[in-house]
Amino acid sequence: MIWLLIASLTGIVILGLLWPLAQPVDDSRSVDDGDFYRGQLQEIERDRARGLLDAQSAEDAKTEAARRLLAATKVSEAPADSGAMAARRKIASLIALIGVPVLALSLYVKLGSPTLPDQPFAQRAAAPDENADLSVMVAKVEARLSDHPDDGLGWGTIAPVYLSVGRYDDAIKAYGNALRLLGETADLRSGLGEAKMAAADGIVTADALADFEKAFARDPKNERAQYYRAMAAEQDGDKPRALTLYRALLETLPPDSEPAQLVTARVAALSGEQARPVFDPNAGQSAMIRSMVERLDARLSSDGSDLEGWLKLMRAYQVLGDAPKARDAYSRAKTAKAGDSEALAKLSSAAKELGVAN
Out of 3.40.1000, 1.10.600, 1.10.260, 1.25.40, which CATH number does the structure's domain 285-354 have? Predict the structure, then answer.
């Protein structure tokens, strides 16, 4: 199709260039001028014979008419060299006929992409939905918040995204708006403190610490508030308090989790103890993975709306060699997504792939 389009456009351009050159020269104007001035001379003679013009006036009028007749005769004789003009017109036509396609093709090969494969419209239309860019999603939420600035849930949703991409000032504003509109919660308050800490290049400032203290007072099990309270003590040089707070947090964390590993490393660094791995890479790694899978299972049991979570859970149980639990996860996922035909199709496809379809 692209080559057909290029050929059509090239043909139209060439036709536009050749059309004026193909038109014959119209010499009728010169012939008509000569006849006009000859008739004018005859008319002057008749006027003098009728006594309408005296001899001198008639002579002057005939002189002027003769001069114009002479000029018209020269113009009519000028195209006598029609052979040379026709040759020039043929050369111009040949240049247009050959030069335009060659020039267009050369420019396309140099500046275009003749080897670029085609992409069907269906793929182009589906690509933004399948590979949504984070910046596009953020822009959509920002556009909605611009029209609905009182959407507290929207502010609470975009605040951690701002924090994760390094837009700390925007995160502080978003957390502040969410707190104002949704009310006080430990997660939002500790999130605001973390944004302030990040904006201060990792220093737990007095303002940030005040937010962490408020979050901890509302929810003593809030892990973020506990961790940054301990970090603030460590940055202040109060090692005993920092160790106490870190160890208190460590007691509430699953022993095989990444946060527990991080806190264990901080305790070891402050106490001078040898850092002990959270799990045995030879014997305990499977237990760690199973613990993570069980936490995912528990989350989906309370909120089964996450389709990707169900798919991950089915695959995880299959990897662990626990086919009964994989089948059970598939069964529960079908119940949770009973009203979503697209989700059910994806679940069925994954179940067949894993060999857990029932």
Answer: 1.25.40
